[in-house]
Amino acid sequence: MANVIIRLAQKEDAVSMAEILREIGWSERRNNMLIEEVSSPIKDLIIHCNQDPDGHTIIVAVDEENKVIGFTNVHWVPFVMLGSWEGYVSDVFVSPSASGKGAGSALVKYVMDEGEKRGCMRLMLTNGKEKPSYKAGFYKKLGWTERPKVANFVYYYREPWS
Ligand SMILES: CC(C)(COP(=O)(O)OP(=O)(O)OC[C@H]1O[C@@H](n2cnc3c(N)ncnc32)[C@H](O)[C@@H]1OP(=O)(O)O)[C@@H](O)C(=O)NCCC(=O)NCCS
Predict the structure, then answer these.
(1) Is pLDDT of 34 > 70?
(2) Alpha-carbon span 43 to 126, nearest angstrom
(3) What ranges do the domains of the chain cover?
(4) Which of 6, 67, 72, 99 to mutate to test the pocket of ligand 1 (most atoms within 8 A of CB)?
(5) Which CATH class is domain 5-125?
């Protein structure tokens, strides 16, 4: 994308990030909440992560009008078995109105460059197999490998969004 800029997220970006999540619409519950209820925890997470730049990086993609059109987060995890660091990418979201113009790729490439600069062993993320991004091979096109022998487990403390 010619005019996309990638920069660190600031707390003022929280409302735009919440709006993107609602535009994508994966959670009816989230879409029925007040925007402040969705953006407030995002703002807290941005503040927390920006106070610990060795541990976390939250970045946004902005267009030529300085509008936030996407974001991603990566958490730099010390991994004893690897004797190194793994970057765990926890969210990659682009506004549907700005999709298909390279913003998602630009966000992921920024993370890939940052992990290399930090001397990481690898990056890791999850991608729902029913999602259009998985079916379109979004991560494979960017050079990522799907692990055939690894199951992804989660342990919930409370109900997820959707
Ligand atoms: C996945 C996502 C981040 C891609 O962002 P984007 O800015 O539209 O991606 P790009 O413009 O960089 O596209 C990169 C490539 O992936 C393909 N692609 C990505 N998402 C796609 C989708 N939803 N449907 C079809 N193709 C898709 C594009 O066609 C493009 O392929 P090409 O290089 O052969 O033309 C965005 O669609 C999104 O936010 N989806 C919802 C959330 C999601 O699924 N996130 C990823 C898993 S957590």
Answers:
(1) yes
(2) 23
(3) 5-125
(4) 99
(5) alpha beta
